[in-house]
């Protein structure tokens, strides 16, 4: 076991030394956690890191993948708060009145956790994370040795401390190269497309280059703008956002460049304008393709010379502004068609970035879903909110034309429908009933179009009740026995292909490592 642990630790530290942020390596952290607690009789385990506002999972076993996208504020989760403040192994009795943060998340029938323990991971007096173990049967974790648990927690704490030290070292090197810049936490994703985008953000953010940010509606362009500003030398300056499409054409110049009192009818006082407001910071020009042609030369001058001239003023004003232009249009095509100035287009697109649509980064669905489920759990005031297996399949099958925004709204509506079905009208009005509720969202609650191809539907039986031609009759072996036999052979072959490495086998099979361990024990493979 320790050999596998040190192998997993070496692999993780190598990735961290190469510059990968700790929370961007879920597979490596899960391998590490699995080598230490994978053989315990627990149905679920987590390794969480401490943040300024609570705890963030970096590895989960036996829990849905979306749990990694959730944030656990200590004020909202008294069990985690108790673990964080405990000096040794913190065990909870089966009848503990404190709600468990993972109630309803461990299995499909929404059973509650009956055996729970946790250990705080510390660096001296500082909390750096927690290790949790949960089981659905009371007393299953009672035989675990506290001293062994503390020793393993110490090893995991050492890993978190090393990860933190590597991050701090890189931050100090970055500050030495650029004293102006304050490193900011990056966005971390599962998909290669979003990782490439994040690398491009890191590359261009410290510069003053104009960025042209393109992408379909709802992909999260505003979040990318915030990341560009936060990782720039201008992060202490203002981030001003203006939607060009929402401004009346007669007022756009005044809104962007300002005006003096009396410049036009109704100008009863001086107005600074968005460029002046963003001086020393970043200006986001959303829907830049809607900017009238007549105003585009003035915007070009502001970008080239760093000068603006408010309406009614005889003097130009110098401003120091970094512009990020945002659009869901093909601005190159607009320029070629004469609907957008070509010189302005080239000035704005000094560094173009494309935010990929959600259908091209499906690996990020669990993280995004977990984030939105956590938000809705708090909004609805319930114990937990989870997705059923058929709901997860529906999310994966849908092509998301509205992208991340559509996913957010879909889960928000589904959470309300699921709450109504779970509690009914009377229960939904009772605060205590709502507080204790564990609600499961099904495919029906999502109300997504059925994307299953018609060819996947089983062929109907003939009038005589016989299977259609070309199909064999059902064997005498019970379905459960046949399924177990197939799973046993399939898992054994995959395990052999990965030299007995359970974590690698779980990844190749596309299943959670903790679930694979439990299934292997039931099938007699462990």
What does this structure look like?
Helix 1 (2-17) packs antiparallel against helix 2 (26-37), helix 9 (296-305) packs across helix 11 (342-348) and helix 17 packs across helix 18. 42% of the residues lie in helices and 14% in strands. With 526 residues, it is an alpha/beta fold. Strand 9 (307-308) and strand 10 (317-318) form a beta hairpin. The chain is elongated and about 85 Å long. It has 19 helices and 14 strands. A five-stranded antiparallel β-sheet has the order 2-1-5-4-3, with helices on both faces. Strands 7-8-11-6-12 form a five-stranded parallel β-sheet.
What ranges have pLDDT less than 50 throughout 5 or more consecutive residues?
Answer: 169-187, 452-473
Number of helices: 19
Helix content: 40-55%
Give a short account of the largest sheet.
5 strands, antiparallel
The chain-level mean pLDDT equals 81
Number of strands: 14
Which strand order spans the largest sheet, edge to edge or round the barrel? 2-1-5-4-3
Global structural class = alpha/beta
Question: Terminal Cα separation, in Å?
Answer: 14 Å
Content of β-strand: 5-15%
State the shape: elongated
Radius of gyration: 28 Å
